[in-house]
Specification:
It catalyses: (6R)-5,10-methylene-5,6,7,8-tetrahydrofolate + NADP(+) = (6R)-5,10-methenyltetrahydrofolate + NADPH; (6R)-5,10-methenyltetrahydrofolate + H2O = (6R)-10-formyltetrahydrofolate + H(+). The protein is of the alpha/beta class and 291 residues long. It folds into two domains: 85 residues, Leucine Dehydrogenase, chain A, domain 1 (Rossmann fold), CATH 3.40.50; 131 residues, Rossmann fold. Helices cover 42% and strands 16% of the residues. It contains ten helices and eleven strands. The strands form three sheets. The protein has a six-stranded parallel beta sheet, sandwiched between helices. Helix 1 packs parallel to helix 10. It is globular and about 55 Å long. Bound molecules: guanine. Guanine (GUN) binds next to strand 4.
Length: 291
């Protein structure tokens, strides 16, 4: 059997189109132009690429895009002052500080400085709490993107057995909350889980978010299962030439796609959904801020 390959790039394009329509209505009917401020500290090349893409796609859907680039040595206090300024700026409805921040800056302090009403990452304790008890607010971007792909693929998720591999605050934990809301039976697995292959084999839905290249093997996948691969890992690719690299997920794609019913590729699966969901969250916060 060969799995359906879930085209996250195409789904994200459609979502961005719907977001652009919504932005246009917010402007014409309510006089609101949603604005997203993205803050980056330092010069990590991968973070630079993410932030440039976020700023570009924000502008493409008609939102106001504000990019703040700070040096790697910026004092923590200066970053907190910038966040306070953005919190008070009426043209800014969403604030994202690209993680990780340099070691001399306390990431928790930074997160707690962001007004929950503008926390488009859903990182603040207030918004994580809302997510858990099901109150309106932003929803963690990558998990929301995974959920949209799953619903599109499967329709109702009710009663399905979902196994999440990885327990990060960024993906694993909020993903569990979203799947519970959709009435899945959720298992959180992680690096210390015993008999991981058997745990994964029991899953109708596998969410791989462990950050280890190709760790989840094809013969762990139950025939017909839906596999969502959140991993983005760069590995050497000598077959492409000396010093070349390629991106792979946390799942061994070739073998897993023989067993799975549907699977996301890397790249082109979950990745494009994350930014689209960030834009969706900016609409949510702009709408909530403006009542
Ligand atoms: N770094 C990697 N992913 C993310 C994300 O979703 N949000 C932020 N703020 N930083 C990140």
């Amino acid at each position: 059997m060969s799995a359906t390959v879930i085209d996250g790039k195409r789904f994200a394009e459609g979502l961005r189109g719907r977001i652009a329509d919504h932005v246009s209505r917010l402007k014409s009917d309510h006089g609101i132009t949603p604005g997203l401020a993205v803050v980056i500290v330092g010069h990590d090349p991968a973070s630079q690429v993410y932030v440039t893409n976020k700023a570009k796609q924000t502008a493409e859907v008609g939102m106001a895009s504000f990019k703040h680039e700070l040096s790697a040595e910026v004092p923590e206090g200066d970053l907190l002052e910038l966040i306070a300024r953005l919190n008070g700026d009426d043209t800014v409805h969403g604030i994202l500080v690209q993680m990780p921040v340099p070691d001399h800056i306390d990431a928790n302090k930074v997160i707690n400085a962001i007004a929950p009403s503008k926390d488009v990452d859903c990182f603040t304790p207030a918004n994580v709490g809302k997510l858990v008890i099901g109150l309106p607010g932003p929803v963690s971007c990558t998990p929301l993107g995974c959920l949209m792909l799953l619903r599109d693929q499967l329709g109702s998720l009710s009663g399905l057995n979902a196994v999440i591999v990885g327990r990060s605050n960024l993906v694993g934990k909020p993903m569990a909350q979203l799947l519970l809301r959709d009435n899945c039976t959720v298992t959180m697995a992680h690096s210390r889980t015993r008999d991981l292959s058997e745990v994964v084999h029991a899953a109708d839905i596998v969410i791989a978010a462990v950050g280890r290249p190709q760790m989840i093997k094809g013969d762990w996948i139950r025939p017909g299962a839906t596999v969502i691969d959140v991993g983005i890992n760069r590995i050497p690719a000598p077959e492409r030439g000396e010093g070349k690299t390629r991106l792979v997920g946390d799942v061994e794609f070739a073998s897993a796609s023989q067993a799975a019913g549907a699977i996301t590729p890397v790249p082109g699966g979950v990745g494009p959904m994350t930014i689209a969901c960030l834009l969706a969250n900016t609409i949510t916060t702009a709408s909530l801020i403006n009542g």
